[in-house]
Amino acid sequence: AKLAGKNCFRYYNRAMDHAVERRLYLEQELRGAWDRGELRLVYQPIFRTRDHMLVGAEVLLRWNHPTLGSIPPSVFIDVAEQSGLIQALGPKVLHAACEQAMQWPRNAAGEEVFISVNVSPRQLRNGDLVGEVETSLHTSGLAASRLHLELTETAVIGDEILAVTLLEKLHRAGVRVWLDDFGTGFSGLSHLRQVPVDGVKIDRSFVADMERDPDDLALTTAIIAMAHALGITVVAEGVEQRAQFELLSQRGCDLVQGYWLGRPLNADALVQLLEHDTAG
Ligand code: C2E
Ligand code: CA
Ligand code: CA
Ligand code: CA
């Protein structure tokens, strides 16, 4: 038994070593990935439920490594976050996204399309987010109202005093703030009153189970009603099927995003989609 335990321990250690090694390797590779042109941005369209109009797009980062291939954001964003690399990467994404949004034509309703940028918890706590936002708006010339920031619910709820101060500064800068992955943090509904946000994004885990799980449907319905009572916009993400779209539409969900409506597109393809929409 003693020997087995020892082997077991050694095996565990070795597995740990591999995980640690792989992480360190990814971190080292990620450090120069932007400058080597391995990182690129894709844009997933966001539609208004009422009239199916394309009203905005979320920017998502992609990493294509020369030997490892495509590495999912769930892996490398975490590496960037843990290592602190996100503090250099985040502003680059923000800046590039603002520059890109300046190239977009108006939508078919003649409205300016917004760009939604993910902000990681580390960027909230350490960097100078407000300064970076102001710099990006200034150098790109993008109207502040066209920039939306997606902050995760857990990051904001974690430190409410810091969050409220920061959100007020962002509002003064003129940008919109959304709570991402909403509903996963449990405390969400009760805190919605205290944090000044413009919208919530219902996490796709709720959308995925809405049809099967009455609790998820009830929660989604409650989030929409509560948000509207507070004058907050609601986006549902991860809409993969027509039935999900219909359920959300019936409940008055304002905006929708998901594979059923549109996959993330490269910059040119999004411009083409907008131009096509405008012409048709
Ligand atoms: P997120 O912010 O929740 O982004 C939405 C994710 O859902 C994206 O995955 C998107 O491709 C995916 N998605 C969209 N529609 C559907 C659908 O209908 N079904 C399913 N199953 N998935 C859908 P992605 O691009 O892999 O990004 C994963 C996460 O990585 C993001 O989650 C976000 O937290 C993070 N991330 C991506 N880009 C950035 C970035 O530039 N900065 C930061 N801080 N985080 C990022
Ligand atoms: Ca997001
Ligand atoms: Ca999300
Ligand atoms: Ca999510």
UniProtKB/TrEMBL annotation:
<protein>
    <submittedName>
        <fullName>DeoR faimly transcriptional regulator</fullName>
    </submittedName>
</protein>
<feature type="domain" description="EAL">
    <location>
        <begin position="23"/>
        <end position="278"/>
    </location>
</feature>
